[in-house]
Amino acid sequence: MKTFNMLLSSINDVKDFVNTVSKYDFDVDLTSGRYVVDAKSIMGIFSLDLSKPIKVEVHTDDADAFMAEIDKFIIK
Questions:
Q1: Distance between CA atoms of 27 and 60, rounded to whole angstroms?
Q2: Is the pTM of this model over 0.85?
Q3: 20 burial level (CB within 10 Å; 0-12, 13-18, 19+)
């Protein structure tokens, strides 16, 4: 499992992120405060506070290709 923070600052960022996550068969959870949502749910993501960084939990050991695709959203 990998954990990191990311920021989705626009509607297009959310759409691009959901489209990318949906291509993979492993689970990805997003946490903001006390709320946890499925990263493949666009409605779930919009229920979070997108003005703050979001904690991402990727539930796989082979996430290198996924991480490369979403690199632009990751806070370094």
A1: 8
A2: yes
A3: middle
